[in-house]
Amino acid sequence: MRAVNGRTDRVVVVGAGLSGLSAALHLAGRGREVTVLERDRVPGGLAGRHDVDGYRVDTGPTVLTMPDILDETFAAVGESVRDRLDLLPLTPAYRAHFADGSRLDVHSDEAAMTEAVRAFAGPGEAMGYLRLRRWLRRLYEVEYDRFIAANFDSPLSLVTPTLARLVAMGGFGSLERAVGRFLTDERLRRVFSFQSLYAGESPHRALGVYGVIAYMDTVAGVHFPRGGMRAVPDALAAAGVSAGVRYHYGSEVDHLERRGDRVTAVRTAAGERFECDAVVLATEPNTAYRLLGRAPRRPTRLRSSPSAVVVHLGTTARWPDTAHHSLSFGGAWRGTFDEIIRRGTTMSDPSLLITRPTASDPGLAPPDRDLLYLLAPVPNLEVGRVDWERDGKAYVEEVVSVAERRLFPGLAASVEAVHTVTPTDWAARGLTAGTPFSYAHSLTQTGPFRPSNFPRHSENAVLAGSGTVPGVGVPTALVSGRLAADRVTGPR
Description:
Layout: E1 10-14, H1 18-29, E2 33-38, E3 49-52, E4 55-58, E5 64-65, H2 67-75, H3 81-84, E6 87-89, E7 94-97, E8 103-106, H4 110-121, H5 123-148, H6 161-168, H7 175-180, H8 186-191, H9 211-218, E9 222-225, H10 231-242, E10 246-249, E11 253-259, E12 262-268, E13 273-275, E14 278-281, H11 285-292, E15 307-315, E16 325-328, H12 334-343, E17 352-355, E18 370-378, H13 388-406, H14 411-414, E19 415-421, H15 423-428, E20 461-463, H16 474-489
Parallel strand pairs: 1-2, 1-14, 2-10, 7-16, 14-20
Antiparallel strand pairs: 3-4, 5-9, 6-9, 7-8, 11-12, 12-13, 15-18, 15-19, 16-17, 17-18
Helix pairs in contact: 1-10, 1-16, 2-16, 4-5, 5-9
C-alpha cells in the first residue's frame, strides 16, 4: 500500500466533518501532532445543526448504524463510545408504510423480525427473510475488510479470492435481483433495497454488494445518540482535545504551500499559517482538487448521486404513536428512480424518509412539541430541470402535504418553525452538483474505481470523505478517516 514517505510528525487535517474527526483521532493515537482546521464554528461538516425557537435541528444524517465502527474510532485514542455518548437502540429500526395501507415494523432482532414478516406476508416470506438475513450477514463479512475498509492502489488490488466470493454471491449483479432471490412480496423487497439510494443508484441498477447497507440498517441495528446526531461530532472532537488534537474553528483554508509535489504548510483566508509534514483534505472533492491545483484524470466524467429536499418542522401538535424513523412508500416505485436519476424531475409519487427524533429524545423540542424531518429524494443540479429558486417553496409545500395526508393529520396547521434545504442550498455549501451524497456508487465509481484517497501527483496530501473510498454514509465516513490515516503513517 502506498503511504507518505519521510517524516509525518505534524499533520494538518482540513475539515472537521466525520471523516476529518476520525482521521484526527487515528493520527493522534499513532503519536502524530494533529491540527484540525474547520471553516464552520462547530464540528460536524455535513452532520450540521440549526437551532430555532427551542428546536434543536440536525441538518445532516439522521440514521446511525454500526456503532462498533464508531467505537473503533474512539478506541484509537484509548476511549470508547460509552465514555462519550449515550446511544439509544431504536426498536423498531424503521416503520414502513405502504400505499395499500399496510405497515411493517422493521426490527434488527432476528426473532422479532421473523415474526413480523410472518404476520405481514406469510410463513414463506418469513423463511425467505431468514435466508436473506444470512446472505446479508455473509456479504458483510466477506466484503468489509477487503472491499470497504481497505485502501486500493490499483484495480488489480481487487483481484483476490474475496472478489471471486463476491461474484459467486451475486455481489456484482443488481441489488433488486439479489433481494428477489429470497423475497417475492414487492413491499418487502422495497424494505431491503431502498438503501441503494444512499449509494446514488436505483435498486435495479445498484450493485448487489450494496446490500451491505441493508445489513447495517436491518441486521446490525439503528441507534440514536441522546442530544441528537450533533452529539457524535461533538464527542469525537472532545475526545480529540483530550488526546492533544488542536482545533481551529472559523478557519477556512485557501492555499497550500508546496515544495515540489510536497505540501509544507497550510494557509487560511485570515492569514494563519500551519506548517506540516502531511495534510489530510477531508473536504468536498472539488475543494480538495482546487487546493491541490489539479484533479485526477478519468476516461469518463464522474456522475453524482441524486440530491434531497429536507424539510424540518417544529410542530405544536404531537404524534406519539409515530416511530423514530418512518418510510412512507408511494404506490409508484421503479419509475420514480428514473424520474430523479435520468429525467431530472421530482418524483411524481414520492417516497419519503421521515424522522421524528423527539420520539427518542423529547428534549430536542420545547415542551409538548414535536420535531419532524422529511426527506424527499430529488434530482441533483447536473441532471435536474427544477428551478429551486422559483419552485422550491411549492415543492416543500407538496412534501408537507404528502406527509400530512399519509401520516400526520393536521400537520400544516400545527407548524410553528420551518427550516428547509434544497439542492441549491447544498450547492451553496460547496457540495458537488448540489447533493449531500457525493458521487454515485456505480460499478465504475466503486472500490478501486472511486477517486483515490492518495492522488498520484502529491507526495504527502491524502483525501478523506464521501468523494473518495469507501464512499457515502456515517460508518463509511469514519472508515474513510482511518484509511486516510493509514496513508499517512502506513497501516496499523
